[in-house]
């Protein structure tokens, strides 16, 4: 089953699905775009060969359309609460201690314990509060033990924009 936190493989490396959304009746996996060269890149998820459908450069996101009969779990989004604890969960590891230091309209700034930082293959990992996805891990700075995540507000606004068209 394809869901937030599941793995996919691109160029022989494990990568992480940040969310699964429905736009205009079509299913999409969403992850960070910096792991791809561009639209048309190939990947494998849940035994299927897939292609990057669209890169949203303004948001740092990649959309991968899924076949209509795919077994998926649509992601439930929450709103980030500043100065509250959050968890990063993917199918290979969990980072239990993370705090939302600041939440803007499009980015979340996260503080980590320096001994439990996200690793490069954790890009795209969903960030959860109260069991709901509030963001998608994008980058970290090891010397400050801080990270940046793309806010769930972006995915919600994307759904609204696509529905209007």
UniProtKB/TrEMBL annotation:
One Gene Ontology BP term is: proteolysis
A GO molecular-function annotation? peptidase activity
What does the UniProt keyword field contain? Answer: Hydrolase, Protease
UniProt entry tagged with the keyword Protease: yes
| Official protein name in the record | Serine protease
- What is the native source organism of this protein? Methanosarcina baikalica
């Amino acid at each position: 089953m394809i869901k937030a936190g599941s793995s996919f493989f691109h160029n022989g490396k494990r990568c992480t699905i940040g969310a699964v959304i429905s736009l205009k009746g079509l299913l999409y996996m969403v992850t960070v775009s910096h792991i791809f060269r561009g639209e048309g890149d190939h990947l494998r998820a849940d035994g299927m060969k897939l292609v990057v459908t669209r890169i949203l450069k303004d948001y740092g996101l990649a959309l991968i359309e899924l076949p209509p009969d795919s077994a998926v779990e649509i992601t439930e989004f929450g709103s980030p609460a500043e100065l509250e604890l959050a968890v990063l969960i993917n199918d290979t590891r969990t980072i239990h201690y993370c705090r939302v230091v600041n939440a803007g309209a499009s980015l979340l700034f996260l503080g980590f314990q320096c001994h439990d930082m996200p690793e490069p293959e954790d890009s795209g990992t969903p960030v959860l509060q109260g069991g709901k996805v509030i963001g998608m891990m994008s980058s970290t700075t090891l010397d400050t033990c801080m990270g940046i995540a793309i806010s769930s507000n972006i995915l919600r606004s994307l759904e609204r924009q696509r529905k209007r068209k």
